[in-house]
Amino acid sequence: MKSIQLTKLRPLILSNIRCYSAVPTDKKNYIRDGPSLGDFISESVQQENLVRSVGGKRLRLPPWLKTEIPIGQDYKKLKGTLRSLNLATVCEEAKCPNIGECWGGKEGTATATIMILGDTCTRGCRFCSVKTSRRPPPPDPMEPLNTAKAIASWNLNYIVLTSVDRDDMADGGADHFAQTVEEIKRLNPTLLVECLTPDFAGDMECVSRVAKSGLDVYAHNIETVESLQWFVRDPRANYKQSMAVLKYVKTKFPTILTKSSIMVGFGEKPEEVAQTMKDLREIDVDCLTIGQYMQPTKRHAKVQEYVHPKQFKEWEELGRELGFGYTASGPLVRSSYKAGEYFIENLLKSRK
Q1: What pTM did the predictor assign?
Q2: What are phi and psi of 337, to 5 degrees?
Q3: CA 99 to centroid of chain Cα atoms
Q4: What's the DSSP call for residue 217?
Q5: Do 309 and 135 touch, CB atoms closer than 8 A?
Q6: Rounded to an integer, what distance in angstroms lies between the CA atom of residue 266 and that of residue 88?
Q7: Where are the beta strands (DSSP E) in 157-269?
Q8: At CA 173, angle to CA 169 and CA 179, rounded to 5?
Q9: What digits encode the pLDDT tens for the residues 285-321?
Q10: DSSP H/E element including 326
């Protein structure tokens, strides 16, 4: 058995000896002028490496999607405040890649997207890493006040509130959502508040309750193109229902800015994204974000394509042409993030 193994290894051994003998005698110069570590680990990003073939392996992360590990005093301070008041954030629950940038900002600029109504959703969208259950625990009655206190202590100009879906509640949690905004405005009337809401199962009375709370931006995400809604989102959500929510807010409350978001990388075509953008402008949505979907765990929908930054740039230019007040389009763009909020804040101030 040993003789057979040595026979198989002999050609490899001889090959290595020949390679070694070819090394120049001046070994120092050979090593100095030879290939660097970067030559071994770097590779040009080709288009075929960005698109997943049928039954193919999971795609490798391209360089433009790699972010720094979150550190810093502001990051620790903000996280400590959230934990002490028993508050959840979508930044953590959704594993947002921008958490280091947003939480680690300088004094007065760090921000987080607060997730109210608990940390467990009644729906099971294939892109989302938030916990799910048919009957989550009841909401904390002190959450609206605690949220307002936390936000007041951060000395911010702009804050984003979002929530899980609560189909188990009669009003979908709309009153709890509105109370949180009212408490925030009571403690800090000048603070600009964006609410990223569920669709409330298409109940416009619930939508109206939140819209009347005193918020400045009403956001609801369309998430993906129409043809992929059935695959990406929970069956209780759909394209027409989401469009109806955004249209209702702009029709009934024209002074409120409306905002939506699209994820790409599920296998949609660029022209489908363009059509979704046009549909949103037809109902007068003011602000739009477009970002790369990133698979949170192996159980979630696989990334079919890592869209190149050039394509994001084209969509951003299209957004300007279509007349959006603000369009953020890029691989790491999310529905709520610090850079976007800065521009929307200025847009709100200019309109006022």
Answers
A1: 0.74
A2: -160, 160
A3: 10
A4: E
A5: no
A6: 28
A7: 158-163, 192-196, 217-219, 257-264
A8: 145
A9: 999 999 999 888 888 899 999 999 999 999 999 999 9
A10: strand 326-329
